[in-house]
Amino acid sequence: MPSATRSCRAGASVLTLTLALVTGAVAARATDEPSPIRGATMGTYYAIHLGSRAAVTRAVGDCTGRVLARIDALLSTWRSDSEIARFNASRSVDWVAVSPATAAVVAEAIATSELTGGAFDPTIGAVLAAWGLGPYAGSVSTPPTAAATADLRARVGHRRLRARARPSALRKTVPDLQVDLSAMAKGLAVDALAATLERAGIGDYLIDIGGEMRARGERPGGGPWRIGLERPDGAGATIARAVAVTAGALATSGTYRRRYPLLARTVPDIVDPRTAAPVEHALRVVSVLDASATRADALATALLVLGPTDGPELARRLGVAALLGTGGAHPAEIATPAFTAATAAAVDLPAPAVAAVQTLLETVDCAD
Q: What's the start-to-end Cα distance of the chain, in Å?
């Protein structure tokens, strides 16, 4: 689901959103390292790095392309013919038939909204449009008025959206409710590609879609994959720390990946569903470790929306492995106990059970 490639601003003083495969001594490439599978998706890049024991075939490469194309056809808000776009265009408040995969993804998004008290919400499409964010980038030059913002709040909220599995369908309780799943789509795609590789018998990989990552097994040359968290500085970016991963996902959300000019200020591309406005607080970036990239992607967004006090509090209460970075005059990092414990050794999280991923792959023509 396209979203323009995000980048960090020079001079920012908090942990960056950018997740990178650590280079240097720990990542010297073995001569038998398979060539990465690379391409464009969702308005950004994807890269699949394989361990030296993995063998990629044309069939695997073709299958990854079909998986990504299927996600785009179902969930993209950047194309008018996607399933979600057609649902958004409908003003019906009756059940609208959708594919089982779309219903499963929306059900998962609603569950995450409940878990986070609405900090993550799949119904923010109208807010993004009003502020000229996401697929509506550059469409407005002034922020919405107080009256318009109040109207937006009446059209946003996960409790105004329903999903059912049999027969698979979605339903909105207000005619102009707009669904946008960008805050979990890249994570979903990462999980779907991981399942695709594992079905093909490939157990050593690192998948990167626009900075959302999942790794398993060994990197070329042996040992766990090492994912770097970069800290930007005035001259570029330097590695602040590295996380060793043998099984698990790492997703990051932040308020300076993309910013948009509105009058005399700029606003980030992350909005608070509860206020129907871009977030404005000291918390700049959140990274989440989880078995599922889908869940990590959504939780990173929710924790960032909640801010420097409520975000860490919810992460601790839910046992989320999160690293949160604040900005301002005195930038700081907050690591939850679960993050500290997970990174004390190589991260090894159990394989996730993401119903939406399994339902999605059932519709893609790829051999097991």
A: 25
Ranges 150-154, 232-236, 322-326, 352-356: which has the least confidence: 232-236
Query: CB of 101 within 8 A of CB of 360?
Result: yes
Q: Give the span between the Cα atoms of 47 and 56, in whole angstroms.
A: 13
Cα 330 to Cα 325: distance, rounded to the nearest angstrom: 11
**How many other C-beta atoms lie within 10 A of the C-beta of residue 280?**
12
3-state secondary structure of 287: strand
Tell which phi-psi region holds residue 276, choosing left (phi > 0), alpha (psi between -120 and 50) or beta: left
- Which has more pLDDT, 349 or 13? 349
DSSP 223: S
SS (H, E, C) 229-255: EEEEECCEEEEEEEEEEEEEEEEEEEC
Q: Which residue in the block uniquely carries the two structure tokens 């013919």? A: 81
Please return the burial class of 26, using the count of CB atoms within 10 Å of its CB with bins 0-12, 13-18 and 19+: middle
pLDDT-wise least confident of 127-141, 221-235, 314-328: 221-235
With b meaning 16 or more CB within 10 Å and e meaning fewer, what string describes 334-368? Answer: bbbebbeebbeebbebeebebebbebbbeebebee
Q: 10 Å Cβ neighbour count for 201?
A: 10
Mean residue pLDDT across the chain: 83
Going by C-alpha positions, the residue among 157, 249, 270, 264 that lies closest to residue 207 is: 249
C-alpha distances in Å from residue 347, one per residue of 13, 54, 172, 221, 243:
26, 21, 40, 18, 8
Say what the pTM is: 0.87
Q: Which two tokens stand for residue 311?
A: 């975000």
The structural domains of the chain, ordered by start, are 80-182 (1.10.3980.10)
Which residues are paired to 214 by β-bridges? 207, 249
Q: How far is CA 363 from CA 71, 151, 199, in A?
A: 10, 38, 15
DSSP 23-86: -SGGGPPPTTPPPPEEEEETTEEEEEEE-TT----HHHHHHHHHHHHHHHHHH-SSSTTSHHHH
Helix axes 182-199, 100-115, angle to 10 degrees: 120
Instruction: Identify which has the larger pLDDT, 294 or 8.
Output: 294
Cis peptide before 2 (omega within 30 of 0): no
